[in-house]
Each structure stands twice: as C-alpha cells, then as structure tokens.
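Something for you to look into today, if you have time. I want to see for myself how the chain folds. Leave the record below and I will have a look.
***
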Amino acid sequence: MGAPKALVRDADGTSWLLRSVTALREGGCDRVTVVLGAAADEAGSLLAGQDVEVVVAERWAEGMGASLRAGLSAVAASDDLALLLTLVDLPDVGPRVVRRLVGLPVTATTLARAAYDGTPGHPVVIGREHWAGVAAEAHGDQGARAYLSRHTVDLVECGDLATGRDVDAPTDVR
C-alpha cells in the first residue's frame, strides 16, 4: 500500500483504522483491542479519545503472525469465551457483518468466520480453547489460516451484507 495499512485513508479521508474500530463498536463488541505494528506511534495517535486497548506488536516486521500472537497474548488474561478477529484492510466489512458474528452463540470451542458467497473471509470468531493453538502456528505471514483449515469452522454467510474483499495494493482500491 506504500504505507502501513493502519495509516491509509479512503478517498474521502476516512481512516481505515478508525473505520474498523467503529465497525467493531457499532457491531456490538464490548471491548476492542487494536494491535499496531509499523508506525505504531502515528497510528496510535489516530486512536486518541477512542475506548480501545492498544497493543504494539514489537516484532511486527516478522509478519502478521507476530501481530496475531501479540493480540492473543493481550486478551489471554480476560475472562472472554471468544474473540472476534478482523483486519483493517476490509473496506466494506462494517457493523452489520460484525453484528451477525457477535450475535452467534459462542463457547470456548467456537470457530466461526464470515463467508462471502461461500468463500471464507473475515471477521473470524475464535473460542478461547483455540487461542494457544492459533498462537503456536502464527509465524511469518501466516495468521490463523493453517489452524482453521484443520478444524471445523462454521461459515456464517455475509455476502448479502458485504463483499469481504481485502485491499492489499493501491490498485485494489475502488
């Protein structure tokens, strides 16, 4: 993207980072933990006044696995049964998608993820009993994909609400 994705803004000036936090809040997340990596200080300043916990993935340059491990470590002491994991580069995944996933009945063994016309995407709901396994496999640019591929994951169709497409390059922005 030419810059850390947390610093990218839409053509109208909307910060991807704040858009994502807003989607989580309006979608029903009681607590929001934001993991920052590259340009963490600058990205963190965008969160001034937001009721979020900020975690800095000190080893962010290793890839998304380091960010995922940092986030999982930050919530480990909570009494939450599950967490909802999302990414900042999903421009049309808003509160309605989040609400659909947050509204699921969850247990510590839950694994569920949004699907868009049958294709798995984000957000992902990860029950507490899976956190250690996900963290153990999160290395380099591997997040939870390999772990999820070996477990039963409930797909929650959200294609009626969004496309779920992620933006990895400036040419992906429409």
